[in-house]
Design brief:
The protein has three domains: about 75-190, no CATH class; about 190-270, no CATH class; about 285-360, no CATH class. The chain contains 16 helices and no strands. The chain has helices at about 1-25, 30-35, 55-60, 65-75, 105-115, 115-120, 125-135, 140-145, 150-155, 175-185, 195-200, 225-230, 235-240, 275-280, 295-300, 325. Helix 1 (about 1-25) runs antiparallel to helix 2 (about 30-35). The longest helix is centred in the first third of the chain and has 22 residues, at about 1-25. The structure holds heme C (10 copies). The site of one heme C has 21 residues, from helix 5, helix 6, helix 7 and helix 8.
Length: about 375
């Protein structure tokens, strides 16, 4: 079987090279044709789309999710030693440690019992592609590349652990579940999955992803959007975004993943950049400076004054002004007894330091000033 297909591929490549030489001067193009000739020949037409299996195979992404792909393009980064992701057409069948002697039986047998799952999964890029492009393991691998070999399960479907399953009720340990997905997706954003807080707390990829059903427009998520996925566990954080002051996440213009990498990172808590401030500068670039006069707490950490997930004060502040400032500035040239009833706007001696915009009425450039006469952030 292998031999026959190898011969076919060889024959095809010879034909393609000849065609390439006829159409254009030999050289780069002919070489390219030879390299891409590994694509399987056209087989039958799939009725629904009018595309042949060969068409689909040609359209498959030339994928390399390993970190090296991105790194090699960037002259400033050294390559790392993680292997590139496996392409669809070389999908291996993982070993199920709970049924180590099981053999692959092919998607047809799975579908005989799981017709409904098969219909749902037919939307997914994975299943379409495994069916179309499997040069090594054959289209029968469409289910077993993720669920492991099925012979034991097919004989006794209710035997616990007989198949790699992706739910918390299943006997398959989360690490084995994630291991299957990581077999192809270990690089890139998932470099720090192992050891991450989500991994340590027993999450599986399928807590956030459902590759079987199309629940989200992109990302094969387990809910309709990224924020919905996170909110399924972090309800408290999602609720904070409903406060009076918030960044436009409930409005759908931001996602938790603008700041966090749920797959793990080297910065606590799962931040995408090296520091909190770097995260903020990715969008609020003007706060980076440089400033002639810096306000020390701004340089140190934006969280000294802001609660990123939402606040009932103005502009995400952690405390109202003037109390926010007075947490640090107690004994300044300004007297420290600002909060008397007399000083309020309705009192007998309204104090300009607590009416209007409070301290900000005068110290308006609170994040830093570039004005030569602005050391007190007045201008
Ligand atoms: C003879 C019919 C039959 C065949 C063939 C079969 N299954 Fe199943 N499968 C079942 C039944 C019945 C269940 C439900 C078992 C239960 O509820 O304990 C099941 C459950 C499952 C589950 C969920 C297991 C869990 O613990 O949550 C997965 C995943 C699964 N099958 C995948 C497959 C795959 C992949 C194949 C092909 C390799 C396959 N099945 C072949 C009948 C079958
Ligand atoms: C990309 C990997 C992948 C492929 C390919 C795949 N599955 Fe799944 N399958 C999953 C994951 C992940 C889940 C768990 C989804 C969830 O959270 O409900 C699952 C769940 C299931 C279940 C259990 C459903 C339930 O409600 O408990 C069955 C049965 C199943 N798959 C059968 C199949 C069949 C049949 C195929 C081939 C047509 C297939 N799978 C292909 C990853 C895959
Ligand atoms: C045999 C290799 C292989 C396995 C196993 C595999 N994937 Fe994939 N997956 C791919 C490839 C290849 C792509 C497409 C990459 C691209 O679009 O560039 C992909 C795409 C994805 C995407 C992105 C889809 C999108 O629309 O953006 C997600 C999410 C994903 N896989 C999750 C999983 C999960 C979860 C599992 C385990 C249940 C899994 N994969 C198992 C190879 C695999
Ligand atoms: C806590 C939730 C969560 C967990 C757990 C999780 N993911 Fe994701 N994943 C996401 C979200 C959200 C996105 C979309 C990110 C975006 O668009 O910026 C994503 C995107 C992806 C993508 C496509 C984009 C990319 O980075 O290439 C792949 C592939 C993927 N995840 C694979 C996995 C695998 C494999 C696992 C298990 C080891 C896993 N994910 C575990 C939430 C999660
Ligand atoms: C299945 C439940 C679940 C889902 C879904 C989930 N998380 Fe988590 N997350 C956890 C658990 C459990 C912890 C650990 C909490 C602890 O230790 O206090 C955690 C911790 C975190 C932390 C804190 C990390 C640290 O170092 O303290 C961040 C940030 C986080 N998750 C972000 C996200 C984002 C973003 C998403 C959506 C893409 C998400 N989570 C989806 C369960 C989940
Ligand atoms: C604008 C960037 C940003 C966005 C958007 C964001 N976070 Fe955070 N998140 C942070 C920062 C910064 C911290 C660190 C807070 C600290 O140390 O007090 C944090 C901390 C966390 C923590 C751990 C500490 C805690 O407060 O419990 C969790 C869990 C978390 N975020 C989840 C989420 C979820 C879920 C979403 C989406 C609903 C989200 N974050 C959206 C920046 C963000
Ligand atoms: C992905 C982009 C993005 C990131 C990252 C980001 N922000 Fe924002 N932020 C926004 C957007 C968009 C707005 C709304 C701007 C508007 O309404 O004009 C906003 C508004 C704000 C506001 C004003 C809120 C109000 O009620 O007026 C503050 C304060 C703020 N962000 C602080 C932060 C801090 C601190 C960080 C870092 C932890 C951060 N942002 C990271 C996009 C981002
Ligand atoms: C010393 C307290 C303090 C620190 C630290 C701080 N801010 Fe602010 N921030 C404020 C105050 C007060 C306001 C309200 C200003 C106003 O209403 O004019 C504000 C407003 C904002 C706004 C909305 C208005 C504007 O100027 O665009 C953004 C965005 C913002 N801060 C981002 C940041 C970022 C990013 C950092 C970290 C680099 C940071 N802040 C650090 C006190 C602080
Ligand atoms: C987390 C502590 C902290 C908070 C909160 C804080 N500051 Fe500061 N502020 C500092 C530090 C530290 C300096 C630097 C003092 C120095 O260089 O002697 C400073 C410097 C200043 C200066 C310049 C002082 C000088 O001697 O040049 C002004 C004005 C000022 N802050 C106003 C404010 C106002 C107004 C607020 C409230 C919006 C505020 N600060 C909030 C810590 C803070
Ligand atoms: C009416 C305008 C005004 C208001 C309102 C105001 N300040 Fe000032 N502040 C000033 C001026 C002017 C100076 C410079 C005094 C000097 O250099 O002698 C100053 C200086 C400071 C300094 C530096 C003190 C030092 O030792 O050099 C700090 C800190 C400060 N203000 C904090 C605050 C805080 C906190 C508030 C709100 C409670 C506030 N200011 C409200 C005008 C104001």
């Amino acid at each position: 079987m292998r031999l026959v297909s190898l011969c076919c591929a060889a024959l095809l490549s010879v034909m393609l090279i000849v065609a390439g030489m006829l159409l254009s001067p030999p050289g780069a193009q002919a070489q390219q044709a030879a390299a891409s000739s590994a694509a399987p020949p056209d087989v039958q037409h799939s009725a629904s789309s009018g595309l042949s299996q060969g068409d689909i195979a040609r359209m498959l992404p030339a994928t390399d999710m390993g970190a090296n792909a991105a790194r090699q393009k960037d002259p400033h980064l050294a390559p790392v030693s993680d292997s590139p992701a496996t392409p669809f057409d070389a999908a291996p069948i993982p070993v199920n440690p709970l049924a180590p002697n099981a053999d692959a039986i092919g998607a047809k047998t799975c579908v005989a019992c799981h017709a409904q799952e098969n219909i749902q999964a037919s939307h997914s890029l994975h299943v379409i592609s495994f069916r179309a492009g499997a040069a090594n393991s054959g289209p029968q691998a469409a289910c077993e590349t993720c669920h492991g070999p099925g012979s034991v399960h097919a004989k006794d479907p209710t035997a616990p652990g007989s198949i790699i399953a992706y739910t918390h009720e299943s006997k398959t340990p989360p690490r084995v579940q994630a291991g299957v997905c990581l077999g192809c997706h270990a690089g890139g954003a998932r470099q720090h999955w192992v050891g991450s807080v989500h991994e340590n707390r027993g999450l599986s990829c399928s807590d956030c992803h459902n590759p079987m059903t199309r629940l989200s427009p992109e990302g094969l998520l387990a809910a309709s959007s990224i924020n919905e996925v996170c909110a399924s566990c972090h309800q408290d954080i999602r609720a904070k975004f409903n406060r009076r002051s918030h960044m436009p996440l409930p409005e759908g213009q931001m996602a938790c993943t603008d700041c966090h990498n749920p797959h793990g990172s080297i910065t606590k808590p799962l931040l995408k950049t090296d520091t909190v401030n770097e995260t903020c500068y990715t969008c609020h670039a003007e706060k980076r400076g440089p400033f002639l006069f810096e306000h020390a707490p701004v340089r140190e950490n934006c969280l000294n004054c802001h609660d990123v997930h939402g606040s009932n004060q103005q502009t995400l502040l952690v405390a109202p002004i003037p109390m926010l400032c007075q947490q640090c500035h107690t004994m300044t040239l300004h007297p420290n007894d600002l909060q008397t009833p007399a000083g309020l706007g309705t009192g007998p001696h309204p104090d300009e330091r607590i009416i209007g915009r409070g301290c900000l009425t005068c110290h308006s450039n609170i994040h830093g000033s570039n004005n030569p006469s602005g050391p007190k952030f007045h201008e």
